[in-house]
Specification:
Number of strands: 12
CATH class: Alpha Beta
Oligomer: single chain
Number of helices: 5
Largest sheet: 6 strands, mixed
Order of helices and strands: HHEEHEEEEHEHEEEEE
Strand content: 25-35%
Number of domains: 1
CATH topology: tt1808, chain A
């Protein structure tokens, strides 16, 4: 086997697929890709507490809708992005499938900011979730102490924004949720 034959055996046919395959197989770590940058996911207890307050309020309605709520992988095909949202609500039948889902298969995506990723959630994920059709994006901005609900996604971003509302102001989640989310404990 010549040098060129050896080199061919290591060629990557699809760099996007290879990168996404690699991060899914990093042992003992949850990892996402933000605009081509690999980032481990390691939320603080304060961050998880805010997400848990939301989970508690959504739990009954999520069951009624025959959905599941979690932080499973969301793929953004055709880009170097692989997200792990703090919360995603998806139909139960889709949640049973192996692997990742697409943002347009969600009913709601929630991101809770951290000091290290606030701008990513405010700008990059906001744009990408809209581009990939996530119908509702709730941004819980712990640094700004405010919540914003984004809806009506399009290729250029969300066309409707409710907020930012200071913590303590209820957020109305539209149908299919039809509930008032209390934000005072964030």
């Amino acid at each position: 086997m010549g040098a060129t034959d050896s080199a061919r055996s290591y060629e990557v046919g699809d760099p996007e697929a290879s990168l996404k395959f690699a991060i899914r197989h990093i042992k003992g770590d949850r990892t996402q890709i933000i605009e081509g940058v690999i980032e481990p996911v390691s939320p603080s207890w304060a961050h998880e507490s805010a997400a848990d307050v939301i989970r508690e309020q959504l739990a009954q309605r999520v069951r009624e809708l025959d959905c599941r709520m979690g932080s499973g992988d969301l793929d953004l095909p055709g880009s170097s992005n692989w997200y792990i949202p703090d919360i995603a609500v998806v139909p139960r039948a889709l949640a049973k499938e192996a692997g990742s889902l697409l943002p347009d298969q969600t009913l709601l995506v929630v991101e809770v900011t951290s000091d290290s990723n606030g701008d990513t959630d405010r700008v990059v994920k906001r744009r990408r979730y809209a581009e990939y059709g996530a119908p509702l994006y709730l941004l819980v901005d712990r640094q700004e102490r405010a919540c914003t609900l984004l809806s009506e996604p399009g290729r250029l971003g969300y066309t409707r924004a409710e907020g930012p509302h200071p913590f303590g102001t209820p957020i109305i989640l539209p149908e299919p949720f039809g509930l008032e989310l209390q934000t005072g404990e964030f």
